Amino acid sequence: MKALDDKVRDALAWLERHGSKKGREGMARYAIVAEGAFGVSMKDMQALAKTLGRDQALAEALWATGQYEARMTACFVAEPDKITAARMDAWCRDFDNWAIADTAGFALFDRTPHAWKKVAQWTRSRDEFVKRGGFALLWGLTVHDKEAPDARFLEGLEFIERRASDDRHWVKKAVNMALRATGKRNRALNAAAIKVAKRLAASEDPTPRWIGKDALRELEGYHARKAVKEES
Fold first, then answer.
1. Do 204 and 168 lie in a common domain?
2. Which of 62, 79, 96 lies at the terminal end of a domain, its last residue?
3. Same domain for 63 and 91?
4. Residue closest to 91 by CA, chosen among 61, 117, 111
5. What share of the chain has pLDDT > 70, as a percent?
6. How far apart are CA 29 and CA 121, in angstroms?
7. Given this model, what pLDDT does residue 147 score?
8. 120 CB contacts (<8 Å, ≥6 apart)?
């Protein structure tokens, strides 16, 4: 069996071979700032993760390299039932761009038993990308937690409304996306999200006002109605 260090070296070499200047330029266009990035596409990172399989020890070793694509790949390799709350906190503190925060939330953290606790914890953070990670996690849960009762998401809407005045770009975008996603989960949550969005849209503060108005355009629009109808 190949040693863990060898697996990490092989994965890094594979990622470097599949990186490109075009990929790095694409990252720059989407404001993904990551020192030492190779410029590997998401599709290729997911392909590598598929060949590696779920392996918590390997995921932790990949993350420990600090290399952007290695950490992104770790999100697809880690085992949701084996990642601890402490490990989630440690990884979250390492977030330095929106892409890693969102990928960890959508591909891994929202499948762990600690997810809802971390939403409550991280959305209170003063750190921009930790807070981004909290709202990205809430967004991911609207899609992947099929068993959660509406009460969980109503609490999420309270977090959204309470913290909608944070004007930092990556935070307000995540708050907006979490609001829109919650409102597309089912009919009851759509109505609740629209009420929150209307209150935010009426704010004198430009940040919650933008979040509310932007969310309303989607929540009251055709695509949201269609999504809610299909969910019901």
1. yes
2. 79
3. no
4. 61
5. 95
6. 31
7. 95
8. 155, 159
